[in-house]
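Re-run requested by the PI after the first attempt was lost when the workstation crashed. Everything re-entered from the original request form. Ligand of interest: flavin mononucleotide.
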Amino acid sequence: MTSDSDDAATATLERLLSTRWSCRAFGPDPVPRTEIERVLDIARRTPSWCNTQPWHVHIASGRRTHELRAALAAALADGPAENADLPFPSSYEGVYRDRRRASGWQLYESLGIEKGDRAASAQQTLRNFDFFDAPHVAIVTTDRDLGTYGAVDCGLFVNNFLLAAHSRGIASIPQAALAAQAPVLREFFDLPDDRLVVVGISFGYADDDHAANGYRTDRQSIADVATFVG
Ligand SMILES: Cc1cc2nc3c(=O)[nH]c(=O)nc-3n(C[C@H](O)[C@H](O)[C@H](O)COP(=O)(O)O)c2cc1C
């Protein structure tokens, strides 16, 4: 039997999941440390295989965020190289290509970037590396020996971090673009060799008036995501 309190919990979860979005323009106000710890306190409840809890986050704030921005800019001066600890997708074909394009066009359309304007889209891609002006960036790492499932566990942690942040009015964006600069992150945070960079998460308070935050992505239907057998 589903109780009224269950219904309220479902409604809250559904609201958080359906209203969260990836923020690509932040205001300058920092998130208080107590609020960041509140988010971490919720996200640390994430399940993992054998309860290994392989995630660790290095969080840059204030001056350190600016320094990391500068370190990334210096590394990117010769063009964005891909140097990720975990393999990136080798290609996007079929529906994946279509969905990737659709979400890209949504962003460009809201920013007024014309299709085919490679200079403007490259410029927007570079915004990843100044964290879209976010005052904080979290780098999520996993343990090398735990392999793919360790990264899966970290993915669950990332989603719970995003949802917990959203529940506190904190905007965020997961960024594989940052993972592509693993050597810079490794040096900046002095990461040990047994830690692999999974993803970065920029976070702060949204600039609600910015065009980059003016659209929402859609999702596939139940029929597309599930096959019922029997
Ligand atoms: C693992 C992961 C990596 C991502 N990397 C990037 C990134 O590097 N740059 C970016 O702008 N968005 C990135 N995103 C955000 C996705 O584009 C976004 O989640 C997706 O388009 C759905 O939109 P929504 O988050 O607004 O619902 C990433 C998301 C995930 C889950």
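Saved to the shared folder this time. The mean pLDDT is 97.
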